[in-house]
# Entry
Amino acid sequence: MPLLAVFCWSLARSGYAQTQAEPTLAKQLASLTEAMARTQAQVERSQRELQDMRKQLTALQALAVQSGSSPSTIESILEPSPSSFPTPAPAPEPSIAMDDLRERQAVIESEIKTHEQTKVESESKYPVKITGLLLINGFVNTRQVDSAATPTLAIGGPGSTGASVRQTVLGFSARGPHLFGATSYADLNVDFDGSPQSPASTSSYTGYNASSATLLRLRTAHAGIEWQHTRAYFELDRPILSPDTPTSLTAVAQPALAWSGNLWTWNPQLGVTQNLPIRASTVRLQGALIDVGDAPSSVVTTSGATGSTPATGAERSRWPGMEARISLLGSKDDEGSHLGFGGYFSPHLDPTGGRFDAWAGTLDTKLVLPRHLSFTGSFYRGAAIGGLGAGAFKDFGYSASTTSGAYYFQPYDDVGGWGQLKEKLSQRLELNAAFGLDNVFAGQLRPYAVPNGTSYQNLARNRTYTGNVIYSPSAYLLFSIEYRHIESSPVTGLPVGSNVIGLGAGYKF
# Structure
């Protein structure tokens, strides 16, 4: 008690002259002793609370381990690094220590609530995550188009105005067990833009209550195992030749610039990806087998059971399609610049048994530019690539002999592509402008033009100009206004155009 000794020594030196001050000094000494006792009690209480907190953290760590979280993730949540908090003063006030404890406890409780919200029970006991985009879009088409809510082709006639929620997307994703030193994953996405199974049976009414209306539609699916630099997978998705897509909130059921230079169709693929890190860049090698579907206007039924689902031209050949891509990534992820070259080959049989080969060569790029700008584009040259989303909705043209009745087929050469300029003004606001073109060689198409035929059969060129503004006031809300001009040119006759104004509002979950 050095302080008490000082007081006693001072009292002894003062003598009788300070006898009248003794009551005052005694009160101060008692007050100081009481304050020291309170401080000691607060320190002891803080130590007990710290011990209780450590017990809670230990229990939480055991719970997180049982749920499948990795040790590094648990440590990052439960054991904040010393640099995450300011260094305490040599003798902190008890109130400051208590505030620090309360703050840490609030952070831990928030993490527990987040963990409970994102955990979905599954049969495999591995965590499953539900994602989605509830999308409402309104549209105004100044001329008739192939699909009012999701137009890709102008066909002439009166316009239309309306609204739809059928572009809403629902997804499921999961992380599974480790296999051969790799992590496994799977995801599935659906929307509600399906078509009726039998259009003829719904000619009088095509609303949501039609008995044959199939609204739920499978979009994409992925499953695979992934090592640090290698990935083996099965997926239903766009071809690996076309990794990018234009940005749009009003063209989701069919991506922006579909059938106008964007190779987008979702086909089954089985492939492998290998990344080769080279300093700050990465060389990516990709190869896959692909089962390509028929283009919308390339289905010709010459025989077979009525009502059956015929095999596609690629399936009748009994050989899978093949695709490969090599690319250079400017960084170790997909967010930076890249440059890629791809190739595609798939043997086909036409409905009469004649063989033709579908092929394509592609170039894709993304360039991150100054002033928050970026340019993304994809370009192709090929033949019979309607199954990939090109070829003016078809792989080939056909005609029947007036004497023998035999069919004659001509695979169409095709060239096209798209480009988009994006300006990200902030994390919440971005501007996009894009142009796409798909062009079948008119010299090949003209001999097979069908008088009074459908817009798809005689279409030689389809191009689209588009621009949009997307605003996101929060991480979960999206709003957009978009303008599109679609111009479709038949091989004979004048081109037909339509202006499309779209409004979109989405909620991400």
Q: What stands out?
A: Residues 183 and 196 are 39 Å apart (CA to CA). The chain has two domains: 34-80+97-119, 129-199+212-303+310-508. Helices lie at 2-14, 22-66, 71-78, 94-118, 313-316, 442-445, 455-458.
